[in-house]
Amino acid sequence: MQGRRFETDIVPLRKNVRFQLLWVGSAVSELGSELTRLAMPLLVLALTGSPGLAGIVAGARTVAFVAVQIPAGVWVDRWDRRRTLLTAQGLQAVVSALLTALIVTGHVQAWQFVTLAALDGLCAAFIGPVQGTAIRGIVPSGQLHSAYAQEEARTHAAGLIGPPLGGLLYGLGRAVPFVVDTITFLAATLFYAFAKVPRRPADEPRTSARGDGGEQRPIRRSMRREAAEAITWLWRRHGLREVTAAVMVLNLLGGAFLIPLIVLVGERGGDARVTGTVLAGLGIGGLTGALLSGRISRLLPPGRLLLAVVTVFGAALAATALPWGAWWPMIPLMFITLSTPSLNVVMDVVVTRMVPEAMLGRMGAVLSMGGMALKPLGPILGGALAAALGGAAALIVLGGLLGLTAAVAALSPQLRHFTGEASTAGDDTSTDDKAPRTLA
């Protein structure tokens, strides 16, 4: 009777004020980041004329993000999560304001681009794990799929609106997109404050009765041991290991196409607004895919869905090089992100349900780092290929490498048959906590 009454008391997700405030804050912040995702390489190219340097700046942010990802996950599990989120988002606003001031005064230099991009990546490494744990704390289990579908829609809506708006604002003035970015970070900080995300894990398992007053206190193990616990958990999940490896290569090659695409559009006579509109194709496909994620995720199990995503990504990337004008790449870009939201939603939901809350920050960081370990090299690779071969040839090479990745990944039976069900683990699933279900 108590469980039944609890279920009937659950409010619809659209009326969950704390989740919606968290979502709006994330959406505002994501929009600001998408504005500068295009404006930053455009500015670096305008000031230096070097596609390689534009790639290094983009790569610096990802290097910093990946380098601190696992320590950030451990600290998120230890610290006051609400305070961590507000601090990291506030520092992002400060970094953006510093960059804006340098651009306005005309004193910005290459090393400053790299340094501020790295600082932004450090802040983002803390924000992601807190957002993931916050959703677990404020959304009932039965609404997780809808919550993560809404999260995916947010990401791709920002990808749809951000690039063309960023190009438009850049056309008004080089500093304008960065001014708006700073404002969005400040607004996001306010929304996060009102969302009141949970401060601590609700199921902290490690306690000791050695307090001065006899009370129990959390046992603080070494950071290395806590990180190793999460890595060991991942290593023992056959299938998930192979999925993580394939995603690493996908993010490397998928993260390399932005600079060649900007070069390609420029070679065909497109300006900043045309480039922004072309990149909006990613947002259109992603937003559509997020809305269809429930249906698409039922068509294929996660392993085969991943193979399909990599194959479509490679073919569409190569198709952007077809000689049909500056606007043409927008069409294949839509197909790149059409299927990825379904895979993201399925993985997010199963991880959130499976991992104990006290370990959620670390596990999210390990999976994120596993998927992004090679991503810092993507912009550098893309910039080098564009400088050596030109935009079209670079995109064809990247598309071919993605096709090869799909072919090699398909040789793994663990990946092909990976469904995310407990029966596919095929290994020792014991941990310090209750045995979890296998990740999709």
How would you explain this protein's 3D organization?
The chain has 440 residues and is an all-alpha fold. The chain has 20 helices and 2 strands. It has helices at residues 2-9, 17-48, 51-67, 69-78, 81-105, 110-138, 144-172, 176-195, 223-235, 240-254, 258-267, 272-291, 293-297, 302-319, 330-336, 340-354, 360-372, 377-389, 391-409, 413-416, and strands spanning 207-208, 217-218. Strand 1 (207-208) and strand 2 form a beta hairpin. Helix 5 runs antiparallel to helix 8 (176-195), helix 6 (110-138) crosses helix 17 and helix 14 (302-319) runs antiparallel to helix 19. It starts with a helix and ends in a 24-residue tail after the last helix. Residues 1-8, 205-219 and 422-440 have low confidence and may be disordered.
The beta-strand count equals: 2
Q: Structural class per helix/strand content?
A: mainly alpha
| Strand line-up across the major sheet | 1-2
Number of helices: 20
What spatial form do the alpha-carbon principal axes imply? Answer: globular
Rg over CA atoms, rounded to whole Å, is 22 Å
Beta-strand portion reads under 5%
| Average pLDDT taken over every residue | 79
Identify low-pLDDT runs: 1-8, 205-219, 422-440
H and E string: HHHHHHHHEEHHHHHHHHHHHH
Sheet having the most strands: 2 strands, antiparallel
Give the end-to-end Cα distance, rounded to a whole number of Å. Answer: 32 Å
Secondary structure: elements and pairs:
Layout: H1 2-9, H2 17-48, H3 51-67, H4 69-78, H5 81-105, H6 110-138, H7 144-172, H8 176-195, E1 207-208, E2 217-218, H9 223-235, H10 240-254, H11 258-267, H12 272-291, H13 293-297, H14 302-319, H15 330-336, H16 340-354, H17 360-372, H18 377-389, H19 391-409, H20 413-416
Antiparallel strand pairs: 1-2
Helix pairs in contact: 2-3, 2-6, 2-7, 2-8, 3-6, 3-18, 4-6, 4-17, 5-6, 5-8, 6-17, 7-12, 7-16, 9-17, 10-14, 10-17, 10-18, 10-19, 11-18, 11-19, 12-15, 12-16, 14-15, 14-16, 14-19, 18-19
